[in-house]
Amino acid sequence: MLPSASRMRRGEEFADAIRRGRRAGRPMLVAHLKTREADVPPLVGFVVSKAVGGAVVRNRVRRRLRHLMRTRLTAIPRGSLLVVRANPPAASARSEHLATELDVVLDRLLRGRRSESRTLTDGRS
């Protein structure tokens, strides 16, 4: 499971990541990444609405996403806020497909972050 220190719990953190963070989406998942300058572990939160399914299905999807994020946590910059929202197709997805979708979304978010920092350091706008 995801380490306790890396779990997002406060509503303000969810709101900040969703409102002010970068967004990347796929049919199964949408992720919001808000980078902050802080020397603390990244915080990860999950949103699985009733549109995904009943309580058992939602909890299963959330557990699978937490398990997948555990191995990907080191790729997230320290101090960042990441919110992963599951869409209805995530309920019936195989774990391998869910992992692939998560990798694509995270790659898009992190690639965009690298190009932004490169632009700032190069002096280009």
From TrEMBL:
InterPro entries: Ribosomal_Su5_D2-typ_SF, Ribsml_uS5_D2-typ_fold_subgr, RNase_P, RNase_P_CS
Gene Ontology molecular functions: 3'-tRNA processing endoribonuclease activity; ribonuclease P activity; tRNA binding
Entry annotated with the keyword Hydrolase: yes
UniProt GO cellular component terms: ribonuclease P complex
Biological process, per Gene Ontology: tRNA 5'-leader removal
Catalysed reactions, as listed in the record: Endonucleolytic cleavage of RNA, removing 5'-extranucleotides from tRNA precursor
PROSITE patterns for the chain: RIBONUCLEASE_P (PS00648)
Keyword Nuclease: yes
Family: Belongs to the RnpA family.
Assembly description: Consists of a catalytic RNA component (M1 or rnpB) and a protein subunit.
Protein name: Ribonuclease P protein component
Protein source organism: Sphaerimonospora thailandensis
